[in-house]
């Protein structure tokens, strides 16, 4: 895939993609999974028995079919992102912007 032609050279690609469903249909992997894999963008994906986890960087085994399960995953992802951002801010204050590891 030629990303310069498809997306333009000024596009900034995401650092990570979170997918609550990795399939378009019963037989087809979602296009975002395929493109992210080609462009080496890490992915987190909820995968059930119908999904192929090989293209997902961090597969999470679970149910991706019910609204309550998707709501739970979204709450967990939101909490993890908030905690990570808070830790990064604390580390910046504690160690300065040049001498810390994320």
Explain what you see.
- This protein folds into two domains: 1-63, no CATH class; 66-102.
- 41% of the residues lie in helices and 12% in strands.
- It is built from three helices and three strands, in the order αβαββα.
- The chain has a three-stranded parallel sheet with strand order 1-2-3, with helices on one face.
- α2 (31-38) links the parallel β1 and β2.
- The longest helix is centred in the C-terminal third of the chain and has 29 residues, at 67-95.
Observed structural traits:
102 residues; 3-stranded parallel sheet; 41% helix; alpha/beta; 2 domains; 3 helices
Question: In terms of topology, how is this protein built?
Answer:
Elements (H helix, E strand, L loop, with lengths): L2 H5 L9 E3 L11 H8 L4 E5 L10 E4 L5 H29 L7
Parallel strand pairs: 1-2, 2-3
In brief:
The protein is an alpha/beta fold and 102 residues long.
- Helix segment count? 3
Number-wise, the strands total 3
Shape: flat
Spatial arrangement of strands, main beta sheet: 1-2-3
Mean pLDDT: 85
């Amino acid at each position: 895939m030629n990303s310069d032609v498809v997306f333009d050279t000024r596009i900034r690609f995401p650092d990570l993609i979170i997918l609550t469903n990795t399939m378009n249909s019963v037989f087809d992997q979602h296009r975002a999974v395929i493109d992210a894999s080609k462009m080496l963008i890490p992915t987190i994906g909820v995968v059930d028995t119908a999904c192929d986890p090989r293209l997902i960087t961090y597969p999470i085994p679970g149910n991706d079919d019910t609204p309550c399960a998707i709501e739970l995953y979204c709450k967990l992802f939101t909490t993890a992102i908030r905690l990570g951002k808070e830790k990064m801010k604390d580390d910046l204050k504690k160690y300065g912007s040049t001498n810390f590891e994320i």
